[in-house]
Write a structure and sequence with these properties.
Length: 535
């Protein structure tokens, strides 16, 4: 087996400096040099995965093809690179301890005292190694948390052990720190960076590259000083300037600051005169900075006040914007604030409306009113998962005249369960359980908007849901002209619906947002944004 090179990305000073984006950008730059990369996140929390975490605390759970419910940073890895992630790319303290304790109970350790070093760190190293595929050249491992946290110590220790394990030439350490500006002194301060590197060195890790997050330009004197105190060569002290418009500016920015070259050099890979394919990132920046159009999109949902709860949706909308040279203004509307009296006032000047997914803890009246408004006023509308289910309920109530139609998730005794669990549906043999998680194949029906967007009939999209369109009502809906535009391959479940005579009224049971990238925008988001542009 060829030897894989490893890059560990750690963070210092404080959280939220953009370690996930930095790791993803490193991936994008190395892919641009023709290397096959793998991306892995290690999270110091005890949860086994992110599936049980509330979006209020942790933002969305990002779903992979193989149905892993992972930390939202993994979404950035897939958005910035071509890697396809799976369960093995998300490692948590919970998983590691669970496995070590299982082995201890089964007697695998043959009576030894089971300890953090070496048993926990061995398990971490094993998992990190197996997260790279056979053809991986470089594996990028982001270490969650901040250096100095108690929880992340075993992971940093395992990373340090890689030096002797895979050899000094095959592992490098990138450390992201903060260079804050002290307003009163009107000066940037390098001390937090110095201290954070000291903390890392206490564990035995000497960073090879520093990425210094700074709200401005870094002068040569500052670089010199940081270099002197941290033992990192000046050319490897790279400023990570806060960008004004979009996170997708970062790969090109890092490349322009010399990061690509220094990464290759430190990894002992050829770097002089290397041919790269990084123009796509510079072209993207150009598109982002010089839009031709603008469009105002309302996202109407339950967790709206949380920046990260619909993260992949906002990203995918932006990708659709880039694809149409359009700058989006996204208005986030808390669905509970919408009522019959204010709906038209709230939505009167938006160009498109999107209702995202979610579980229904409370009523969906706000969503229903927004859907009705979009349908009747021919405003482009995109419903995702719960968003599609609301579309079906609204159509049942207001077009089919089935008063009180509902999803059994909201009203178990509804007389018209147009959305329900499979096991509640007549004549359905559902041995597989009700949760549909991860990628499934489905068939797009020709002549529909969905087909126009995808331009193919076989698609694979990611899912995370329990409730389904109830096929018992299918004929009634079709008689009332609701278009069924996609079905699951194996069991004929409705995957997408469309409104007739409408510029864009599409609802999908799956989550297309998880497969959209800035370089390859998802066709449905592209078409949705296009339909919102005024002619
Ligand atoms: N709660 C709904 C279901 O389980 C919708 C889920 C979602 O939007 N992801 O079917």
């Amino acid at each position: 087996m060829k030897s894989v090179k490893f890059i560990f990305v750690s963070g210092g000073v404080c959280s939220s400096l953009g370690k996930g984006i930095a790791s993803s950008s490193i991936g994008a730059l190395l892919e641009g040099c023709g290397y096959k990369i793998a991306m892995t996140k290690v999270d110091p929390y005890i949860n086994v995965d992110a599936g049980t975490m509330s979006p209020y605390q942790h933002g969305e759970a990002y779903i992979t093809d193989d149905g892993a419910e992972t930390d939202l940073d993994l979404g950035n890895y897939e958005r910035f690179t071509k890697t396809l992630l799976s369960k093995k790319n998300s490692i948590t303290t919970g998983q590691v301890y669970k496995e070590v304790i299982r082995r201890e109970r089964e007697g695998d350790y043959q009576g030894k005292c089971v300890q953090v070093i070496p048993h926990i760190t061995d398990e971490i190293r094993k998992r990190i190694k197996s997260s790279a595929d056979k053809d991986t050249d470089i594996s990028i491992v982001e270490i969650g948390g901040t250096v100095g946290d108690i929880e992340s110590i075993p992971f940093l220790e395992a990373a340090r052990q890689f030096i002797t394990d895979v050899g000094r030439d095959n592992v490098i350490f990138v450390h992201l720190t903060l260079v804050p500006k002290i307003t009163a002194a009107d000066e940037f301060k390098t001390k937090p960076t110095q201290h954070s590197v000291q903390k890392l060195r206490e564990i035995g890790i000497q960073p090879d590259i520093l990425l210094c997050r700074i709200d401005g330009e870094m002068d040569q004197m500052m670089k010199k000083k940081i270099s002197l105190f941290t033992n990192v060569e000046e050319e490897a002290v790279i400023e990570s300037v806060t960008v004004s418009l979009s996170i997708y500016e970062i790969p090109a920015l890092y490349d322009a600051k010399g990061l690509t070259k220094i990464l290759l050099k430190k990894l002992r890979l050829p770097y002089e005169g290397v041919k790269t394919n990084l123009k796509i990132w510079y072209d993207l920046v150009d598109k982002i900075k010089n839009p031709k159009y603008t469009s105002k999109i309302a996202v109407v949902g339950k967790y709206i006040e949380l920046q990260d709860a619909y993260k992949s949706i906002y990203e995918a909308l932006d990708h659709g914007g880039h694809a149409n040279s359009t700058r989006l203004e996204i208005v986030k509307i808390q669905s509970d604030n919408i009522n019959e009296n204010n709906v038209s006032e709230i939505l009167k000047d938006v160009d498109g409306i999107l209702v995202p997914g979610g579980s229904v803890e409370k009523g969906i009246e706000g969503e229903l009113l927004s859907v009705k408004y979009a349908r009747e006023n021919k405003i482009p509308f995109f419903g995702i998962c719960l968003g599609m289910q609301v579309m079906v309920i609204e159509y049942a109530r207001n077009v089919l005249g089935l008063k009180d139609a509902n999803s059994t998730e909201l009203e178990s005794k509804t007389p018209y369960p147009v959305v329900s669990l499979l096991e509640e549906q007549e004549g359905v043999d559902n041995k597989g359980g009700s949760m549909r998680l991860g990628a499934y194949d489905s068939t797009v029906i020709e002549g529909t908007k969905l087909h126009a967007a995808y331009n193919k009939t076989k698609i694979s999209e990611r899912h995370r849901r329990r409730y389904e369109f109830n096929n018992k009502f299918k004929e009634d809906f079709e008689k009332a002209r609701l278009v069924i535009s996609c079905k699951t391959e194996e069991d004929n479940l409705v995957e997408a619906v469309e409104w007739p005579d409408h510029p864009f009224g599409v609802g999908v049971q799956f989550h297309p947002e998880f497969k959209s990238k800035p370089i390859e925008p998802h066709p449905l988001f592209k078409m949705f944004i296009k339909s919102t542009l005024k002619k």
